[in-house]
Design goal:
Helix content is 38%, strand content 15%. By secondary structure, it is of the alpha/beta class. The chain has two domains: 149 residues, Aspartate Aminotransferase, domain 1; 264 residues, 3-Layer(aba) Sandwich (Aspartate Aminotransferase, domain 2). The strands form four sheets. Strands 3-11-10-9-6-4-5 form a seven-stranded mixed beta sheet, sandwiched between helices. Strands 12-13-16-15 form a four-stranded antiparallel beta sheet. β7 and β8 form a beta hairpin. The radius of gyration is 22 Å and the shape is globular. It starts with 7 loop residues before the first helix and ends with a helix. This is L-lysine-epsilon aminotransferase. Belongs to the class-III pyridoxal-phosphate-dependent aminotransferase family. It is an enzyme of class 2 (transferase). It holds the Pfam family Aminotran_3.
Length: 437
């Protein structure tokens, strides 16, 4: 049988006949792309990758250790069929879970659940919280309730059923689709350089909204849901003290605290999970993107209800329970991340990247609000129009970057990104800014 592949010049014509083609005008060359460099099979152009498939690519392309023959045999074995992991088990599945537990799961977390897709990870975390709160209410003699998720403005948690009610970054993604009217709280994010007085006022306002929401419906709110860093909404960062307040509210009102770490997880912030840079441990973490397979992890707080979703058959489930091929790939990624110290690399190179962006901010009035943790960094431009021109200028000069929020550029390089590549990216950004006109 021939390879399942067509000439690069036929890719867009074939796709446009069948699907909406509104992504980047690049045909990825999966064989020639390497590390943090994307090769376009259509034109032969190379791009320094600060995009990373929307932060899903931890090692870039064709990492030498991914060519290990034993790993490739395991990957092929997993790929030839797609077992229903929820109902029938395999050696490959167990090997992945063991590696994931050892290298990625913090000690405070007891339970795991796997599913395909970050939105479904968040959705199942919400279902775990609904189930928990409803049973908590019954213990107190209250029937019903437990049917709301307190969440934040500028949040992106996915586009599936329940997550449509908490995602609110762009009306195009949610408008016209049925949604629940759940408490939506103002976002007290930091703008840099920090004005502590202004941030404190924003936090006070947000806390007043949270308290009012719990007063209106104390039995209704099942969970507080937040991204440790709001990515699509504008790379919004929060003070650690604000997370401590959320922890207090969740404890006081018998709600679960859920951190959506789909984009911030697996080392990009310079720690395995972003929450580890705070003094707060959430009850549930949603993971995905760089982990390849998505899902949730839970602390033992959920065991305050013994018949929770991690103990009741079919309460949460999916046919494939993730995807075995993704699991095998994730296991190898984790081994390499651990062997090569790539979480530490993200912290070191990310610091250089942010320092360079701050230098650009000092040289160009148009660059403001530089922020970042590890390799998850961003900057603001004066307007959406200027941001779009900078974005296009970067791509035209071979630097793949992303937009976010109303006027931000965000960088999402892989964990293997080097200091030399950071310097190259900063040089390209400088050139673009110098030529804005």
């Amino acid at each position: 049988m021939p390879e399942i592949k067509i000439p690069a010049e036929e890719v867009f014509p074939v796709l446009k006949e069948n699907i909406l083609v509104d992504g980047f005008h690049v045909v990825i060359d999966l064989e020639r792309s390497h590390g943090s460099v994307i090769v376009d099979a259509l034109h032969g152009n190379e791009y320094l990758d600060c995009y990373g498939y929307f932060a899903t690519l931890p090692l870039g392309h064709n990492h030498p250790k991914m060519k290990d023959e034993g790993f490739r045999r395991s990957l092929m074995t997993a790929a030839l069929a797609n077992p229903a992991n929820s109902d029938i088990y395999s050696q490959e599945f167990a090997a992945f879970v063991k590696i994931f537990r050892t290298l990625a799961v913090p000690d405070d977390f007891r339970y795991l659940f796997f599913v395909a897709g970050g939105a479904l990870a968040v959705e199942n975390a919400m279902k775990a919280a609904f189930d928990w709160k409803v049973q908590k209410n019954r213990v107190r003699g209250i029937e019903g309730g437990g049917d709301k998720i307190l969440h934040f403005k500028d949040a992106f948690h996915g586009r599936s059923g329940y997550t449509l009610s908490v995602t609110n970054t762009d009306p195009t993604k949610t408008e016209g689709f049925p949604q629940f009217d759940w408490p939506r709280i103002s976002t007290p994010y930091i703008e840099f350089p920090i004005d502590r007085g202004a941030v404190a006022k924003k936090e006070e306002a947000a806390c007043a909204e949270i308290e009012a929401a719990f007063e209106r419906d104390p039995a209704g709110i099942a969970a507080i849901l937040i991204e440790p860093i709001q990515a699509e909404g504008g790379d919004h960062h929060f003070r650690p003290d604000f997370f401590s307040k959320l922890r207090e509210y969740a404890n006081r009102h018998e709600a679960l605290l859920i951190f959506d770490e789909v984009q911030t997880g697996l080392g990009v912030t310079g720690t395995m999970w972003a929450y580890e840079q705070t003094s707060v441990t959430p009850d549930l973490i949603c993971f995905g993107k760089k982990t390849q397979v998505c899902g949730i992890m839970s602390t033992r707080r959920i065991d305050e209800i013994k018949t929770n979703v991690f103990h009741t058959s079919s309460r949460i489930n999916s046919t494939w329970g993730g995807n075995l091929t993704d699991m095998v790939r994730c296991a190898r990624y984790l081994e390499i991340i651990n062997e090569d110290g790539l979480v530490e690399n993200a912290a070191i190179v990310g610091a250089h990247l942010k320092e360079g962006l701050n230098e650009l901010s000092g040289d160009f009035e148009s660059v403001t609000n530089v922020r970042g943790t590890g390799l998850l960094v961003a900057m603001d431009l004066p307007s959406g129009d200027v941001r779009n021109r900078v974005w296009q200028g970067c791509w035209d000069r071979g630097l793949a970057v992303l937009a976010c929020g109303p006027r931000s550029i965000r960088l999402r390089p892989p964990l293997v990104f080097s200091e030399d590549q950071a310097a190259e990216a900063l040089g390209t950004l400088r050139e673009v800014l110098e030529n804005l006109g």
